[in-house]
Amino acid sequence: MVDVLSQNEIDALLAALSSGEMDAEELKKEEAQKKIRAYDFKRAVRFSKDHIRSLTRIHENFARFLTTYFSAQLRTFVQINVVQVEQLPYDEFIRSIPKMTILNIFEAEPLEGRMVLEVHPNVAFAMLDRLLGGAGSAPSKIGSLTEIETIIMEKIFSRALETLQEAWKTIVDIEPRLEALETNPQFMQIVSPNETIALISLSTKIGDTTGMINLCIPHVVIEPIMSKLSVHHWFVSQKKSRAPDEIHHLEQRVSKAKLPIVAELGSSRISIQEFLNLAVGDVIALHKTTDEGLEIKVGDKLKFIGSPGTVRDKMAVQIHEIVGEGVEEFNDE
To answer: Smallest Cα–Cα separation from 116: which of 224, 189, 37?
Structure first.
């Protein structure tokens, strides 16, 4: 923005030039000098603020999917949240993680290149302890993985990567596939040390154990789809294609939901005294006759009218009528 001088400032500037306090030639030289800004080539800025915001939104969904997945697998309290999304050199990321950690190296077609899901040992071993029947606490001393422990971790994190596919669906359809599981960062060289990466840090709590899960995405891997990470594209694609996908997935999940279905023969009211005096052979009169249809409820809602019977020596109910929407159920008082 160009600074606009007031009349008093203009008069003071002209007076200073007239008196010799300021030199017009020196002012011109200062104006002509190039302004220099320091730039660190080791920390090249490849992701704009717009890209960082989009990555944050995507992986907030990833964190929610991971929370649901691990809660179901471990059957305990799990909480995962995005703490920070930043860009830094790959070498700096390697130096920042423990010498012994869980490194899930994976590919995600059609993207070319490899990415890493780094899980802090406290979190990984708490998951392992829980899966093997323990309380879900991390050991005081963490050693190398046995073959059985490696296989278990490969399975749980391979399935965890499937939630990444769901989180990225609004941008691109990817198919994450676990390629290898490493424990020593020095043996993992997926890109050059100076390559810029996006680091998504997720705070993780499993029971009483806390730690970090870091997702390392090299810039060279997602460079072909960087244009899709703009906020404009993100919102447009969300409006046009996300809604039908969400409806489809919602229909699939709802179709698998289990609901109780109850065929009610009838009801009756008796006093407490009558209830206490009930004996074998007593008959309780219901409020319905035998030729009236049975009320069939789904959950607590009346949905069908039917009649009782048997099929292959098992009790069954035949549906005669579907109760329309908006029909209220009235009980005799």
So the answer is: 189
Of the pLDDT bands very low, low, confident and very high (cuts 50, 70, 90), residue 20 is low
User: pLDDT per residue over 204-250, tens digit each?
Assistant: 998 888 899 999 999 899 888 888 877 555 555 555 545 567 777 78
Cα(24)–Cα(32) distance, integer angstroms: 12
Q: What domains are there in the chain, each with its CATH number?
A: 49-233 (3.40.1550.10), 258-322 (2.30.330.10)
Maximal CA-CA distance, the chain? 123
How many residues would you count in the chain?
333
Q: How many CB atoms within 10 Å of residue 182? A: 15
Name the residue among 307, 305, 301 with its Cα closest to residue 325: 301
